[in-house]
Amino acid sequence: MGIKSYHQDEKVYWKVYVNLRSKENSRIRKQKSVSGLESLSAARRMEKQVIAELSVELTLATGHGLSWSGIIDRWEKDAKSGLLRKYDPTTIMDTVSGLRRWTKEWLEISSEELTRFHGRELQKKMELAGMTSQGQKKVRSMVNTVFNYGLEEKFISKPIPSPVAALIFNNDAEKVPDILTLGEIKQFLERGKELQNEWYPIWAMALLTGMRNGELYALEWSDIDFENSLIRVSKSYNSRLKIVKSTKAGYWRNIPISSQLRELLIGLKSKGMNQHVLPRLGGWNQGLQAQELRFFLKGIGIRPVKFHALRACFATQLLAKNIAPAIVMKICGWKNLKTMEIYVRLAGVNEAGATECLEILPMEVVMENVVSLYNN
Question: Among 32, 33, 72, 252, which residue's beta carbon has the most beta carbons within 10 A?
């Protein structure tokens, strides 16, 4: 290996030569030279890059494949560059951090040596940690994604199955999502207004629009169309990456401005013509909105819910007022019908009045209760 300078056309250039030989089999070696580099610093950077590339090739040629950590690194690099598909930056971050946490014991193992034994040990680890089956399936999906990438890119030379391919998870009992009743919503907003809580306009906007937290944060006055009574939702703030990007669904949508929402907006506009509709509260851009909401609800005697539950409250209240599910789905920007079905069940739209046909009690029992009611 080495870096040398040479002259060409009265100009100094640099050349890099790297020669790597397998420690296990001296007959296997990889070599590469790169010339035409215009500075010594560029040559040094190129040398490091070539060494990394040839190290991978040498490992593969030796027949042991890349370590699991190496494949994660290569997947991350290609995912960020856009070579695989269009990944959201947070998806890449979550995948890499999730794998390095849950498959920590695999990192220095050759990927070709990973078996179903390792997969079962991973499952036991997740179960002991109390992870839900949904969470375990998410980790399994991460492992399969990166492992299959390794197979496709020939970093794993043997045609072997992913170590988690055969894992079976028992489904958890479905939990009823926490949402507020109409009475709780009214009490919540009345107390917020009465106590002049600085978060009140944000909570009210969430409950009157069904917008996600990042969409609320990114909302600007240019998105408000008072003339046509519409809010154009086209962007969202990512508190982890500190950037404004497209909405979660990837497309814009319109939200009708109700009379109460109009009053709220007019009140906010009267306080000053800032770029953003909602106040820039300390901690909001750091993701502290859920903590503030739980603290306030607990303080006024209402069961705490997640900030995202305000979106569910908006949807279920519309459904309870017989707004068609297709319209609610469009306003909220849901692509997944399964998500919509959850809110339809929460609102009890399809079940309302279904039991009125069950007239089975003796008439005298019914009349006794009616008389008792009026006597009280």
Answer: 72
Q: Please tell me whether residues 141 and 16 are part of one structural domain.
A: no
pTM above 0.85, yes or no: no
Same domain, 54 and 75: no
Q: How many angstroms separate the CA atoms of 75 and 65, rounded? A: 15
Is 322 found in the same domain as 186?
Answer: yes
Assess if residue 303 is contained within a domain. Answer: yes
DSSP letters, 211-254, are --HHHHHH-BGGGEETTTTEEEE--EEETTTTEEE--TTSS-EE
Task: List the 11-21 sheet strands across, edge first.
Answer: 2-8, 11-21, 29-37
SS3 state at 70: helix
Report which residue type is found at 249: A
Neighbours of 300 (CB within 10 A): 15
Q: Which is nearest to 213 in space by CA: 127, 281, 161?
A: 281
Number of domains within the chain:
3
The domain boundary, picked from 62, 77, 105, lies at 62
Q: How far is CA 323 from the centre of its chain?
A: 28
**Residue-number span of the structural domain to which 44 is assigned:** 2-62
Tokens of 370: 């009616």
Residue position matching structure tokens 């020939």: 154
